[in-house]
Design goal:
By secondary structure, the chain is mainly beta. Helix content is 0%, strand content 44%. The chain has one domain: SH3 type barrels (Roll), CATH 2.30.30. The chain has a five-stranded antiparallel sheet with strand order 4-3-2-1-5, with no helix packed on it. Strand 1 and strand 2 form a beta hairpin. It is extended. The N terminus is likely disordered.
Length: 73
């Protein structure tokens, strides 16, 4: 089994992450330098927090949305 370290560049807005020490899955709302601003649900309530990128593990990347095409005339 090959394990790759997640670089700071690998975590982007829209990614789903978990704290390395354990915790809930969170969605990265934005990031700035070495910080990720995350949101998650706990007991049906929206929670938000700021985490160091190095203390997060990416679970899955952002879902790519298809580009909207303008109808041709």
């Amino acid at each position: 089994m090959i394990i790759r370290a997640v670089t700071e560049e690998a975590i982007q807005a829209g990614d789903v992450v978990v704290p390395v020490a354990g915790g809930p899955e969170m969605t990265v709302q934005a990031r700035s330098q070495n910080l990720a601003y995350c949101a998650w649900l706990a007991d049906g309530r929206l929670q938000q927090g700021t985490f160091e990128i190095g203390k997060l593990r990416r679970v899955r990347g952002a879902v790519a949305r298809p580009q909207r095409r303008e109808p041709s005339p």
